[in-house]
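Weekly structure sync - notes
Attendees: PM, LS, DV (DV joined late)
Agenda: review two folding runs queued last week.

Item 1: First target. Sequence and structure tokens pasted below for the record.
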Amino acid sequence: MVRHRSKQEFVRDTVREWIREGKFQPGEQLPPDGELSKQFQLNCRTIAAGLNQLVEEDLLERAPRKGTVVKGKIENPRSNAVALIARDWGDIYSEMARTINQGLMKEHLFPVFLDQNFVYTPAEVITFLDLLISRQKPYGFLAIGYHNFPYEYVKEHAKDLENFVFFFYNHYEEKLPNAKYVLPDYDSMGHQIVRYFAEKKIRNLAFVSKKENDYHGIHSSIQVQIFLAIRKYAPQYDITVDESLFWRCHAGAKFKDMLLELEKTPTKMPEGYFALDTVMIDVIYPELLARGITPIRDCPVLGLYNIHRGEKYGFDTFDIRPEETVKQALALLMNKSEEREILIPPVIIRRSEQNSNTNKDNN
């Protein structure tokens, strides 16, 4: 049987919602009963009955000459909801999502996913977060900090967005006091890249970068962070990194044009290449093959992410250890670690050497 609210309960619930939303703050006075009577189109006796219920809840204080004053503030109840915000669920992201879902449910936490189709502008993420915190205080938040993430909103709403964990990416110039971080160790990656090419006796190294239209500082670019780490460690291994090639490609120059320039000075031609997997396949491979150079066999190449393209073409890539990243992110979320920032060193997947050994065995 459905029970309908009485008129006084309607008044009570509406005024309670006003207080919850902050329309009336503690110490502020509500409109007189007569004005509320006109607003609700109910008699003053019904208005008084509804307000008196809120007096019993210790939310209001009523006195003959003082009127009705808001006494307390309604705190949203804590919930077991965990907001998960991520931009792309392809490749490694899909497995990360499944692992997160399983990990949360083992702890009796409820994952709330923001569909990837709705996270491409800050406004959409803000709307999602506003709705989530309007009636509850979620257990926490897990977010991949992509370029357009509304970091300022998280910073300004620190009280409502407690227990916020960024994982995998962070593209903001400062660390937020209400947030924790689990990120790839790009310094370690840069050192490993240099050692990798040093082992292969490479002296001239090229990092062929992808153009980044939204570049606005080191924090906004993974490519730049990795390049600076490569440049940091290269002198220790007597390796020269083509800085001009990196920055000009990053600004939009064509790799093909850069190679034509370098061919005029053969001693400066790259002997090894590092790049994003898309750049490796769509840009570097065609130009090398057009010059009769077979990647891997004639020229060492190393890709950034260990996804299907690297496996398909057989070149070495980095395993950024998504399982460990998720494990540590969940540990920070559940306060099982006292750390506020955890850096995960990546590991090189050396499939090119395995393929080479297989080919030798077959021969």
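Item 2: Second target, run right after the first with the same settings.
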Amino acid sequence: MNKQIQELLARGVAEVIDRKHLEQQLDSGKELRVKLGIDPTGAKLHLGHAVVLRILRRFQDLGHTAVLIIGDTTASIGDPSGKSETRPQLTSNEIEKNFATYEQQASKVLDGKRLEIRRQSEWFGKFGLGDVIKEASKLSAGWITSHETFRNRLKEGRPLALHELLYPMVQAYDSVAIKADVELGGLDQKFNLLTGRELMRSHDLEPQDILLAKYLVGTDGQKMGKTLNNFIAIEEEPFEMLSKAMTIEDSLILEYFELATSVPMDEVKALEQELAAGANPRDIKKRLAEEIVTLYHGRQAAAQASKEWEKIFSNKEKPSEIEEVKVKSENIVDVLVETKLAPSKSEAKRLLDQKGVRVNDEVASEETKVESGALIQVGKRKFIKII
């Protein structure tokens, strides 16, 4: 195998099924159809999504076609994988709103010339009850209930709705519809992707190979995800993106270099040796944050964001530019909500109780009144000026 294929099957990859077959496919020169499905359960794609998007891009760079499937049907079910309770079902309006900018966001990573974007509704919009029963008949109840999530919920007596049992089959049919050669996904998607292989066999199609990506840990130490709000969005503003990247644990620096940047792995290994030899993790993390911003905003924007970060966090100075906001309220709790510095009054009160809000450099309390010209700071990096 050439170096590109070796990196494709290794960088950010947790498991490959069937590895030997996929190696043969890649070595054959055949143009493969490589599938990745994303449920529009939130409006923002983040660096966790970008792990598999970057793997998909490496397939494109080798001459293969990426097929990005927007799960406008599966999103209405809610992926039960790893969940201990039934997810709320999204409405069609919520799905459309979340989907609206997915193509634009994904194009920051993928090559549009080798990209198909498909919506599940293209085929499921034509399905009737008979079609659902026909596809369901091709998978055994034993197979579906062998899913670890389903098995655990049944064992523990937790609710398991019938529509959740259909989720793996619905996702699997996408592979039949587009005749996928390879499907990508996170480790939590393993069962759904294996179900794709099962359903393809029943349709007399060659089963897709599977490439499972590693998880990217979020800013709170858990798997990065939209529902946990611990993510770094790929459309985040440069300064915010860099600042969030600087908050990750030192132990995750090398993992982020592998999963969230394009820095060659030889360089990453050299950085690992520098850290082992006693290099300051903050300096290596700064390089990491700049590399992440560069990928999505360019080198100049990364340098500017880095300079601003030094000014605020190292030199304890105010930002170069502070947004001016007009408000109707005077009470600090109402002002925080009105300016969207807090999502709710309860969250605003929590920030004040934790002494996380300053008005004109003084720690604020719930009794603080806000006057025109006041400078409000929330946390270390959020500043606004009231007019």
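Discussion on item 2: Residues 333 and 346 are 9 Å apart (CA to CA).
Action: LS to circulate a short write-up before next sync.
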